[in-house]
Amino acid sequence: APESPLSSAEESVKSLGEQGGGGGGCGGGSSQVPLREPSEPSESQPGTPLPVPGHSGLSIQEMVAMSPELDTYVITKKVKEVLTDNNLAYMKRRHSSVSESQTADSGGLSGGDFSQGGSPQHGLGHHLHQQQPPQQHLKKARVVLAPEEKEALKRAYQQKPYPSPKTIEELASQLNLKTSTVINWFHNYRSRIRRELFIEEIQRGEGGSPSTRAGKASEGDSCDGTESDGTVEGTRPGHEHHPASEGEGGSDHRDDGTTSATGSNAAGTSGHHKGGALDSLFSFPESTHVSSASVATTTAARNPRDSSLRKKKAANLNNIIHRLEKAAGKDEPHEWEF
DNA sequence: TTGGAGTCAATAGG
DNA sequence: CCTATTGACTCCAA
């Protein structure tokens, strides 16, 4: 059992400090890790990869090996401590200087309207959460898609899970989103649908019988979208408290989705009066598959198959250890088996 | 170039 | 405060 973590900080400082400071001028490239002042000399532990604080020099691996279980809480704590002690924690992501990168949104309006307060990404509802810290362009405001936009994107997905660039462009302009946002959304949505399907299959025992796809796959795979609507429809929750989303019957069939989206209706008016345009473009008398997705989420992930879960954890831990060791400047992370 | 997988991080809700 | 959700991002393979 782990000892009290209280003393950990100091101890780790000692050992780590020693580790780096030791061979004066060993300044190999590994100087990545700014080590703290070795406040006081202490017993060095040359062999130990990453002296784990609070455990009298036990490395994370050793610590893990000692315990019969993977105590992820303790492990995580240790990892965090090591990171902190190496000044590796709290680092912003690698390219947090998003202000420059402004990514793949080539399609968008010209004018490098970035500048963090620049283009108010207007649009219906979907607001950028820009609490607008006067901080000079450090963070990019997070885009939050409005429910209508999500619905529209989902419907588009029903028509075409893999939209062409042109379609993406159209979607973006109709929803008044950046193309990169639409692209990201499709990536994420596909990925998450896939994952849910996977989890679902695991849950229903093994099998992975093709039939399993029927229910849920309607989410993604059907390109015609028709029967998918049918299947899901039964279960739909029917919330959607938007008075605006008046059922507005027919509208549903835009023959071939995507492109037609532009075609029908008041596309002309799309410039303004977003709500109306959207309603007719992507009108949805029903809020289709919201339900299935969330159901999957809620039911999923419980009932873990122990062995596989354990394997996953072990693999993950291995990965963490590997990266820690790398970060700490250890040339050759030594093998560890679970 | 594109898509998948994995991850980060902002936000919302309990 | 913790967890879930989700948009954005990175890396890699095809």
From TrEMBL:
Compartments it resides in: Nucleus
Residue ranges the UniProt entry marks as DNA-binding: 138-197
Stretches the record annotates as Disordered: 1-56, 94-135, 204-314
Domain of life assignment: Eukaryota
Low complexity composition bias: residue spans: 1-10, 258-270, 287-301
Feature: compositional bias, Gly residues: 18-30
TM spans (from-to): none
Extent of Basic and acidic residues compositional bias: 236-257
Domain Homeobox: 136-196
Protein family: Belongs to the CUT homeobox family.
The protein's name in its UniProt record: DNA-binding protein SATB
Gene behind this protein: LOC110538892
Span of the entire protein shown here: 1187 to 1524 of 1524
